[in-house]
Amino acid sequence: MESHGEDPVTAHLDALADAQLLTLDRQVLDTKIGDIAAVSMRSLETGLRLVLSL
Above 70 in pLDDT, residue 2? Predict the structure, then answer.
């Protein structure tokens, strides 16, 4: 909710807050991608063990 007559300090603080939120969103996304990759690797390993045991 930005006002048009916003002072420079408030505008700068708002920009910093937005940048921090974007950074947090990226960290959460990276964590989720890492979790998905770890699960996928475990599934692949389990599948390979199953095939090799036949």
Answer: no
φ, ψ of residue 37 to 5 degrees: the values are -65, -40
Residue 1 lies in a domain: no
**DSSP output for 25-44:** HHHHHHHHHHHHHHHHHHHH
Residue 5, domain member (yes or no): no
pTM: 0.50
- The pLDDT mean for the chain works out to 86
Cα-to-chain-centroid distance, residue 20:
13
User: How is the chain split among helix, strand and coil, in percent rounded to 5?
Assistant: 85, 0, 15
Q: How many domains does the chain have?
A: 1
Boundaries of domain holding 47: 25-53
